[in-house]
Design a protein that fits this description.
Blueprint (H helix, E strand, L loop, with lengths): L1 H18 L9 E3 L13 E7 L4 H14 L6 E7 L4 H15 L3 H13 L13 H12 L3 H8 L2 H16 L7 E4 L3 E3 L4 H17 L1
Parallel strand pairs: 2-3
Antiparallel strand pairs: 1-5, 2-4, 4-5
């Protein structure tokens, strides 16, 4: 009887492990040599989401990511890093950093996705870039000055931020958007969005304990 009980417990443990295996380096995540966050935060584990508003996959990922991010502990800091793989990505990388500079990035974040992918009132994938149209949208909806927003998008400061983000993307060998990097050291993989975030949770705690 005792041996049977032990067998049952062993089978249950194996079943649980199969359902939620410990993430494996090289399979579930990639280690980034000498990696560090774009903007390190003392005493915190930094989660970087490499994204772009125009990316359909990022739009699909966003609701799941927002729900996950809302439950992160205080020692985790989330940073959005806009990717600029193509020219139609660049306009929204500039828009994100202009919105950040003018203090409206956080409250406008989800609305930009909606304006592109649902309302289709600002340029979507496959459409010609139009920075002026984007600036007008921010001005109409968030009370910023339209010309100030446009000039900020085109400013030296925003150029520098876009360039630094692109360099970080290259260093981390970001393959596509959305991608999640933990503390600049681990590029998360995953079979599904939920699986990616499960792996991210593991890596956050791994970094927390290191």
């Amino acid at each position: 009887m005792k041996n049977a009980a032990i067998l049952v417990l062993s089978l249950l443990a194996l079943s649980a492990q199969a359902q939620s295996p410990v993430p494996v380096a090289g399979k579930d995540y990639v280690e980034i040599p000498n990696g560090r966050p774009l903007e390190p935060v003392q005493g915190a584990v930094v989660v970087e989401e490499f994204f772009n508003y125009i990316c359909p996959a990022c739009n699909m990922f966003e609701p799941t990511f927002v729900q996950w991010a809302a439950e992160l502990p205080d020692y985790v800091k989330l940073h959005h890093v806009p990717a600029s793989f193509r020219q139609d990505f660049v306009q929204y990388a500039r828009a994100y950093y202009a919105a950040e500079t003018l203090g409206v990035a956080e409250k406008s974040h989800q609305a930009v996705y909606d304006a592109i992918h649902r309302q289709r009132v600002i340029p979507a994938e496959g459409q010609a870039p139009d920075e002026a149209k984007i600036a007008k949208w921010y001005a109409t909806n968030y009370g910023v000055n339209e010309q100030q927003f446009l000039s900020t998008m085109r400013s030296f400061g925003v150029d520098a931020k876009v360039r630094r983000a692109s360099e970080q993307m290259t260093r981390n060998k970001i393959p596509s958007t959305p991608s999640v990097v933990i503390n600049g050291r681990y590029l998360v993989r995953g079979a599904t969005y939920a699986d990616s975030l499960r792996i991210a949770n593991y890596l956050i705690e791994k970094e927390r304990g290191s």
